[in-house]
Design brief:
3 copies of one chain form a homotrimer.
Chain A: E1 4-5, H1 6-13, E2 16-18, E3 24-25, E4 27-28, E5 38-41, E6 58-62, H2 66-72, E7 75-78, H3 81-96, E8 110-111, E9 116-117, E10 122-123, E11 128-129, E12 134-135, E13 140-141, E14 146-147, E15 152-153, E16 158-159, E17 164-165, E18 172-175, E19 178-181, E20 188-190, E21 195-196, E22 201-202, E23 210-212, E24 217-218, E25 223-224, E26 229-230, E27 235-236, E28 241-242, E29 247-248, E30 253-254, E31 259-260, E32 265-266, E33 270-272, E34 277-278, E35 286-289, E36 295-296, H4 297-307, H5 310-327
Chain lengths: 329, 329, 329
């Protein structure tokens, strides 16, 4: 079990402590369920009401909430509690994770002799790393990950279970109604500090590479088509699909289940709402949405039926306007 | 090959048999294609027309269809033919499945020494069960399943190929445009009699656990985010995405491809139609939908274009109404 | 490194060469980035402007672009450049791929003794082929593929990493609010020349088989429910979900992220746009769409709110029309 003194935490991560640096923290917990040994935090205003009643040993708060927190007891005042919390979880991880350095490449993994694995990279059980692939320093393939031939993964990446990097892009030419395969000779190049969620797939390029830049975070069950380019520090939630040759900027976010069609471009700082379908380029930063609002089934049915006549309704409005204008005063 | 006498089936599962208990059944088949050794069933009214011409040795029917079925020949009258059929398939399975008890944990599986595997659980080929994970009695991990460290699977569950339990939840804090990882210390707790489809992912919680209660059925390629809670006997069809911290009630159904956003709540007995997007809590039992109706492409294009001006159209209607009221009699 | 003379390529694939057959090609590349040893092609008119400046050793063009291409220098005139390119990539592959015949079944694969593997089939690392399954001539399971018991894969198929063939269909009967499993005894039958993308799942049938006919191409992360039938040469892009017992014709295309509900039928030559939801049978060839158009978030919000009152708006239009007709001339 981990136990860290508050004084040590402040030494490592900063912050202004109101309380004893000798207080020992034995767990991290949300405000509502924290016990007497736990460190907790208040970030989102919706949880303010839990501040006064929390049993936590200490609570991380922003300056704005310091007075209330101090009144309750021990607290740690920081600039950005959520970001501080992220750093704290990483500090905690360092103390909780047993050393596994004895076997960085699990004996059950299938690693080609021509693949390059940095001496500090970690290849989990039942992974496959094919010919000529390259895995950078500090990168961790969790379990059952495939990195196909020639694909390059940067440093300090995490690839979760079931990830497939470098399957063939979906490329076919039609020949009298039948599909003829276009062999895919491109690779996949993934930068540093990239995290890729479970069972997510990133296809190899047709001729040139599919590219994912530094700091990109992909959630689970995402499909990235061939020749896609994703800029730095862009994040995508689960179940997103990105079709071939889409070019996505830096610092974008894409909500869960969104679909981005192929051969289009998203500028930097474009934010796509969950389940929206991007059918044309979005060249201006901003937030974009396109989702049919959910409703009770009966109401939806009526509105959906009317929607199929919307253009006709528009025509009727125009006619009414014309009639009114000619008949009116 | 399995062969069971009708008398034995009735002894095991009940029902009122019209015909000889000595009739031997050698297969299960739909009405239309059943042969002379097959047992079949009529459940959905749309197949009534197939009753009289079916070659089946015997047909399972509800009381309402008994007269017609008896006229045709051998039949088995039961309260709920579809439910009876379910029981029958399980009885059949017991006789068709060869005993594999010789190797409950496949030699190719990678199972941590600190994981608990109940003596009756079955771990298929190339599965990974990490440190401190727990697999309950009678549970079966089919093949290539990952159960990550500390995750708990109850009794009599089935996890199909490619399932990933306990990958990290998607948690990051922004630091000047870059994502800082929030380490995920929660686990996944899965109840009894839960079935999880191929390549479905259930993420571990951030601090507390992701919870799936007894009797839940998840189809293939579903994403369950961190800290989600799914109540008893809820079922979800393929390709559903559930974002973090959503709280879903018991006895719900979620249609294929639906998306449920994070930090919201679904009451018990809420039914979400396929491909609908749940963007706010649904606190009343009922059926909810939100799907753009499909149409011939040209018609859709016109209606979609008009939809982008719908609010303006509404304004024009209001103006017409005002004009009419002032100008009218 | 591969190097092929233009003369050899023409000999193998046809086409009318303007330039020296002795020119040696050492790579394939897009127009914009091709170097002096590369062969390139012009197919889509949007790239015509790149023709004159491309550094490629030779460019494959259609008859219509021959005059411009000849003016630039060496070119190969063919009927259909994109199709020719497909053939060229296959020719290239034959020369680039090292012979791996020494171990067609990877030692890490788990293959049942009762499975049939054609002597020319290739089973990659960490694949699972269960009892009674059958893998046809020339078929390649890339890595970490599961083919479940009794499933049949035809000839010259490619199954990419993480594919799951023959997990149980999602079949349950309700018994007083609880789900009772319907055992799935059907199989999966996959024809010849079928390609299936990474982490895609094809479920086994309930009693009869799920069927995928010759020449079908499925992209990544697709879900095919039990008892689905997909006709010849149909192609589906990533993240598509097809519910149980849907019957899809031949020569169809389904765009990425589309959802096809169960127990319905698509005629041959039906094309479904990306992210559309097919909720009823489409019995006429054609293109069908149903997607909420994406917009700036503020505009979308207003239109979505109005959409929830669309049926009421329609009623108001009708009333206006009535009023006008009675009050008007």
């Amino acid at each position: 079990m981990v136990s860290l003194a508050l004084g040590f935490i402040v030494e490592q991560l900063g912050g202004r402590l109101h309380g004893s640096p000798d207080t020992v923290i034995t767990g991290l917990a949300p405000l509502a369920t924290a016990g007497r040994g736990d460190l907790s935090f208040l970030s989102h205003p919706r949880y303010i009401s839990q501040l006064s009643t929390s049993q936590a040993a200490c609570i991380i708060v922003a300056q704005a909430h310091a007075p209330n927190a101090i009144e309750r007891g021990c607290c740690l005042v920081v600039d950005n509690p959520y970001l501080y919390w992220a750093g704290l979880t990483q500090l905690w991880r360092q103390h909780v994770l047993p050393d596994k350095a004895s076997e960085l490449i699990h004996s059950s993994a299938v690693v080609s002799k021509t693949a390059y694995i940095h001496p500090t990279a970690r290849i989990g059980p039942l992974c496959v790393v094919e010919d000529g692939a390259s895995i950078g320093a500090g990168t961790w393939l969790k379990s059952r990950v495939t990195v196909s031939s020639g694909c390059v993964i940067g440093e300090n990446c995490i690839l979760h279970a079931g990830v497939v990097i470098g399957a063939d892009g979906f490329g076919f030419a039609l020949d009298q109604g039948q599909w003829v395969k276009i062999e895919q000779f491109g690779g996949v190049r993934i930068g540093n500090e990239v995290e890729i969620g479970a069972n997510t797939c990133v296809d190899r390029g047709a001729i040139e590479d599919t590219v994912i830049e530094d700091g990109v975070k992909l959630d689970n069950l995402i499909q990235i088509g061939h020749n896609v380019h994703i800029g730095k520090h862009t994040a995508m939630a689960g179940c997103v699909g990105v079709a071939g040759s889409a070019r996505i900027g830096a610092h974008c976010t894409v909500g869960g289940g969104a679909v981005i069609l192929g051969h289009l471009e998203l500028a930097d700082h474009v934010h796509v709402s969950a389940a929206s379908v991007v059918s044309h380029s979005l060249l201006k930063p901003g937030t974009y949405s396109g989702v049919f609002p959910i409703d009770e089934n009966a109401a939806w049915q009526k509105n959906a039926a009317s929607l199929r006549q919307l253009n006709a309704l528009r025509e009727r409005i125009r006619r009414l306007e014309n009639n009114f204008n000619t008949s009116g005063s």
